[in-house]
Amino acid sequence: MADFPLRFSEDDELCVCFHVSRRQIAKFLRLSRPRLASQCSECYGAGTGCGWCIPFIEKLFESHAAGLDAPVLDLTPEEYRARRREYLRRNPEARPPADTTPPPPPEPEAAWTDRLLTDDMPPESPFSLPD
């Protein structure tokens, strides 16, 4: 076992409100190529809860848009969550509504078209495959 704290990994939650990992946001950036950082909210609702993760998402977006490697988040997951707790303590209005559910993730266009061309479509569908 390591004697030092593990740093924030790709699979740690960047958006704690909606449980969106850094890896999920990086994949969204790569596949969806958003034009604005705010469009990252289409990735499972990232950044639409308490707002704590927005500066981190913006940094990922800026690095991706510039063609650079993702910046290193030099915190442990525990430090990240502790700082978020302090942010929420100081900003009580920053809490997401209790009934908030994230929107479904966008599908890459190829996956959407692949779904159209399946054998389980009704015969009257204009997208049915020939026998």
In short:
This protein is mostly helical. The chain contains four helices and two strands, in the order ββαααα. 21% of the residues are buried.
Characterise the protein shown here:
This protein is 34% helix and 4% strand. The protein is globular and about 35 Å long. It has one domain. A hairpin with a 4-residue loop joins β1 and β2. It has a two-stranded antiparallel sheet. It has four helices and two strands, in the order ββαααα. By secondary structure, it is mainly alpha-helical. The C terminus is likely disordered.
Structural class of the secondary elements?
A: mainly alpha
Largest sheet: 2 strands, antiparallel
State the distance separating the first and last CA atoms: 58 Å
Helix content: 25-40%
Largest sheet, spatial ordering of strands: 1-2
Task: Please report the total strand number as a whole number.
Answer: 2
Query: Whole-number average pLDDT?
Result: 78
Strand content: under 5%
Cα Rg = 19 Å
Shape: globular
- Spans of 5+ residues with little confidence (pLDDT < 50)? 125-129
Number of helices: 4
Whole-number tally of structural domains: 1
Q: What's the helix-strand series?
A: EEHHHH
